[in-house]
Design a protein that fits this description.
By secondary structure, the chain is of the alpha/beta class. It folds into three domains: 203 residues; 90 residues, Translation factors (Elongation Factor Tu (Ef-tu), domain 3, Beta Barrel), CATH 2.40.30; 128 residues, 3-Layer(aba) Sandwich (Rossmann fold), CATH 3.40.50. The strands form two sheets. Strands 4-3-6-1-2-5 form a six-stranded antiparallel β-sheet, with no helix packed on it. Strand 7, helix 8 and strand 8 form a beta-alpha-beta unit.
Amino acid sequence: MPDRSFGRAALWVGIYLLLVAAPLLALLTGDVPAGAGFWWDLSMALGFAGMAMLGVQFALTARFRRAAAPFGIDIIYYFHRYAALVALGLVLAHFLVIRIDNVAALGAIDPRQAPWYMTAGRAALVLFLIVVVTSLWRKPLRIDYDHWRLWHALLATTAFLAAVGHIEGVGHYINAPWKRVLWTAYTLSWVGLIVHVRLVKPWRMLSRPWQVTEVRPERGNAWTLALAPTGHAGLRFAPGQFGWLTLGDSPFHVREHPFSFSSDADSGRVEFTIKALGDFTRTIKDVRPGTTAYLDGPYGVFSTDRHAEAPGFVFIVGGVGSAPIMSMLRTAAARGERRPLVLICANDRWDDVIFREELDALRGRLNLKLVHVLADPPPDWEGECGWIDAALLDRHLPANRRHLDYFLCGPGPMTDAAQSGLHGLGVPIARIHFELFDMV
C-alpha cells in the first residue's frame, strides 16, 4: 500500500477507535452512580462498549468512499461482519456478568411484569443474536440473499433502537446533563446513518436511473448486461472496480447486488458479466432491454490503476472471476499497454471459459501470456490440467516474479491455493491483491 494510502488507513482506523471508545470513556468519567462493586461496573462498561461498536456498524455499511478508499469496500464489509461478533460478545458478556453476579437486578422475565426497558434489552439481545447467526450461516440455512438483506436491515435497526431504549430506561451513567447530551448526540448520529443509507442514498439514485440496452450470452452459463445512463452523464470507474446493481425495482428496495464491471473503463460503456449461480443471477438472461436499473458505484481498490509503477501484472482467475480482469485487459489494450502480462485462467471445462475467443484475440494487442487450466479437459487437451498450485505457477511465471503485481479473483479454494503457491515462490504478500466478495 502506498505511504499516502497507509496514512489515510491509519487515520480512519484511529477515527473508528475513537468513535467506539469515546462514549465509554466519557460515560465512565466524572461522577458515576454508586454501583454494586467491580463486577457491576464491568458489566456496564461491557454494555456501553458493545453498544458503541454496534452503532458504528451502521457507518461501516454506509459506503462512504473516502473511508473505504484505503482498504476497499470488500475489506470494510468483512470487518463489519467480524466486528459484529465482537460487539455481540461484549453485549452477551454484559448480560452474563449481571446474570451471575446480581441476578436480582434483571428482574422478572415476563414482559407483563418486567419494566419495559428491561424487556427492550432482552429483545435487543435476542435480535442481535438472530442477525449474527443468519449472517454467518446464511447459505447453510438456505436463506435467499434478497430476503436476508431485507430482514438483516429491519432486525438490526429494531435491535439497535430497542437497545437505545434499554439504556435510556435504565438511566445508569447518563443522568448528568452533559452525559445525556453526549449520548443523545451519539444516538441521533447513528439514527442519521440509518436515514442516510435507507433514504438519502436511494433518493439520490432515483434521480440517476439507468436502462438496460443489451443482454448477451457468454460461455459458461454467463450473461453480459449492458447499461446506459438515462438523463445524466453516467459514471467513470477504474478497471476492476464494481458497483451495486438494482434491476426493475425502486432503489428504496434492498434488492441490490454487487457485480464487477467487465467493460473497458475508458470506453464510456457500463457492462457487467454475471454467471448464473444463485436465485437472482439465474434471472439475468430473462432481463429485457429497456428495463430500468439503478447503480451505486464505483467501489473497490482491486485495480491495476492503483499500481502504475508495477513492471508487469499476473492475473489468476477462476470462472466468472475473469469479469473484473477482463475490464483490466480491455482497458489495457485500449491504452496501448506494452508491459508483460500473464493470465492464468482456471475452469472446469473448455466450453466454460468465459471470453475465450476475445482472450485469444487480446494476445495480438497485448504482451499477454495466456494459460488455460482445466479440471475436466477434453481427450485431445494438451494444456494444463487439474488445479493451480506452486508447481504450475513456477512453470509459467517469469523470472522477475517477485517484482510483479498479482490479481486473484475466483472461488475461495482457488484463490487460497494460488496465494499459497505464490507465497511458496517467494512473492511478497503486499504484491498479491484479491477480491473478497461472496454475497450472492
